[in-house]
Amino acid sequence: MAQIVQNTSLIIGACGQIGTELTLALRKAKGASKIIASDIREGGEQLMQSGPFEMVDATDYGAIEDTVIHQDVSEIYLMAAMLSATAEKFPEKAWSLNMKSLLNILNLGKEGKIKKIFWPSSIAVFGPNSPKENTPQQAIMDPTTVYGISKLAGERWCSYYHQKYGVDIRSLRYPGLLSWKTAPGGGTTDYAIEMYHRAVSNGRYSCFLDKDSRLPMMYMDDAIQATLQLMKAPVENIKIRSAYNLAAMNFTPEELAASIKNHIPSFKVDYAPDFRQQIADSWPSSMDDQAARKDWGWAPKFDLVRTTKEMLANIS
Length: 316
Ligand code: SER
Fold this sequence. Notes:
Strand order of the largest sheet: 3-2-1-4-5-7
Number of helices: 12
Largest sheet: 6 strands, parallel
CATH superfamily of the largest domain: NAD(P)-binding Rossmann-like Domain
Order of helices and strands: EHEHEHEHHEEHEEEHEEHEEHEHHH
Number of domains: 2
Bound molecules: serine
CATH class of the largest domain: Alpha Beta
Strand content: 15-25%
């Protein structure tokens, strides 16, 4: 009798800021039973109630392999990672989590146990000597953060596993992601989400970045759309096996505050930069995403005006 091929997807780190929305979007697109959420802790109500969940530690190869075999998993989205600001506090822990989890998944690909992998990279792969504006796909990359170093090394591993072992790994360099469903954890671009929340809750915000720190940003819906689109694209369209630059908008804290003031005129912001300023200063202010547009048709839908409207409406 022919075996029924399930084509199940496993999301590792499904309870985080991106993982939650990615899981919900995949369940909507492919059917809830085919999308297994996993993490080291339980997630929000909507995530937990909308489909299967398993406790899986991204650094535990055996546990992931078990799930892959028993649930007929053919595709993994690895969303577990320690982000830039937290990683500066726990450098070796961050390196170990970010690298070990990726190599676990790449090795499952190499052994032919899964068919396709998504792993996010970041604007943090760039550094002080990378061109700051319209940062090209190919540029000097000299990340100064542990997070950035781990993402750049990860990109090289992805490219290596693709070339040597034919692993179908796909990746995007996400900018700062703006969302309201699940709180972000430990990033430098988190200030923007905090600003929306404080504007609504108490009308004041003390920003940990300077007023003119321009960074590339994106609304979560666009990031999820890009991820689904990249994973769906025919294999011959995927020309870059490190990670694609991805862009939608860029703004400074002062510009974000102005866009919020259009809705909440009394909103007040002051600026008290901390250690995260140095991280922000080392990153691009805008990105050139021509390759993503050309290879698999990327086009963002949300600019700052639309994002602010959505964020405030959903937080209120
Ligand atoms: N948003 C991330 C961070 O700030 C960058 O990838 O760490």
